[in-house]
Specification:
Residues 146-348 form the Peptidase M24 domain. The protein is of the alpha+beta class. Helix content is 36%, strand content 23%. The strands form six sheets. A six-stranded mixed sheet has the order 4-3-2-1-5-6, sandwiched between helices. It has a four-stranded mixed sheet with strand order 7-8-11-19, covered by helices on one side. Strands 14-17-18 form a three-stranded antiparallel sheet.
């Protein structure tokens, strides 16, 4: 990421600090958790750091393993952690800057760490768990290019994996081969934080059916929910594959899901709520008699994380804006028989949505 991109994001963060009457904000990266917001603001992608942004300074604290990396990746002032804990080191910087009201992410901090924060630095800690997600929600053009590249690599890897798949391959083997193909393509691999979903036969009725040793059998189908990560950004795709022959029931259901996704995409526009878009797809599925079998929301935002704002669901109160990137993934799941889902990623522009994942056809693939 360019240092100029960091400057623009820091300027927006500082605008939020002023609006919220905060002197600064502290972000913690521990054991690789919460690296997404750190890289978004600073460019740094190590697994341990404290980022402190005040109205005048930006500081990155890390240990000796990452000093060279931090200085090369980030324009922040890099401070060596030394023998101190991250919280202790951050507290010293907070006292040096004489900050009094500091935002933090309660959703990303354990109770033990919060107690250390209170003990080491008795400032007024203000939970602003929503601050970075809101800043990260609207994607810049360079972010969109990375998501689009992730989608292209995912499409190619999926088709290559299908080319060698067949009856007798296990769900786990398919997932592992797909992950390998992604890495060979130049992607970082899959999502990292989540396993791919590969669910065959009756197991396809599990919306989050992680791969097992179950083997693909003729006359069945399997559902694959997968994606690539490229330079930190992810895509999220779901496709269905028949083994040998295409079950007419599954074929008709697949056509319904594609129609529901198309209708939702037409409703995807600036100014509508995520709930309204969900309602469009859900109505078609309900009219076909499968309403109770659509057991999850229609979609979610993606970016540096697999699940980001905004929500596209019956509880999705977010009003959609230009620059939002969301999934649309209608699905139907029937216990004992199986299920299907069709998922694609869309970027919302002022003139309407674009399907980022268009490189991969939405057809019901068939292994011969």
């Amino acid at each position: 990421m360019s240092f100029s991109a960091c400057a623009g994001r820091l300027a927006r963060l500082r605008g939020a600090l002023i609006q919220e009457d905060l002197d600064g904000v502290l972000l913690l990266v521990r054991e690789g958790q919460n690296w997404e917001s750190a890289v978004y603001l600073s460019g740094y992608r190590g697994t341990s750091a404290a980022l402190l942004v005040s109205r005048d300074e930006e500081i990155l604290i890390t240990d000796g393993r990452y000093l060279v990396q931090a200085r090369s990746q980030s324009p922040f002032s890099v401070v060596e952690q030394g023998n101190r804990s991250l919280v202790e080191a951050a507290g010293e910087e907070i006292r040096r800057l004489r900050l009094r009201r500091v935002g933090f992410e309660a959703e990303r901090v354990s109770l033990r760490v919060y107690r250390e924060m209170e003990s080491r630095c008795p400032v007024e800690w203000v939970d602003r768990s929503d601050l970075l997600p809101l800043l990260r929600r609207i994607k810049e053009e360079q972010e969109l290019r990375l998501i689009e590249e992730a989608a292209r690599k995912a499409a190619g890897a999926f088709m290559e994996t299908l080319g060698v798949a067949g009856p007798g391959m296990s769900e786990r083997e398919f997932a592992a081969l797909l992950e390998y193909r992604l890495q060979v393509s130049g992607a970082e691999g899959g999502w990292g934080s989540h396993s791919f979903i590969v669910a065959s036969g009756p197991r396809s009725a599990l919306p989050h059916g992680t791969p097992t040793e179950r083997r693909f059998a003729p006359g069945e189908w399997f559902t694959v929910d997968f994606g690539a990560r490229y330079e930190g950004y992810v895509c999220d795709i779901t496709r269905n594959v028949a083994v040998g022959t295409l079950d007419p029931w599954a074929r008709d259901l697949h056509e319904l899901l594609v129609a529901a996704q198309d209708a939702a995409a037409e409703a995807l526009c600036v100014g509508v709520s995520g709930r309204e878009v969900d309602r469009v797809a859900r109505s078609l599925i309900e009219q076909a008699g499968w309403g109770e079998a659509f057991s999850h929301g229609l979609g979610h935002g993606i970016g540096l994380e697999l699940h980001e704002a905004p929500r596209v669901s019956p509880r999705g109160e977010d009003i959609l804006e230009a620059g939002d990137v969301v999934t649309l993934e209608p699905g139907v799941y029937v216990e004992g028989r199986g299920g299907l889902r069709v998922e694609d990623d869309y970027v919302l522009r002022m003139e309407g949505p674009d399907r980022i994942t268009q490189a991969l056809p939405r057809e019901f693939f068939v292994l011969r």
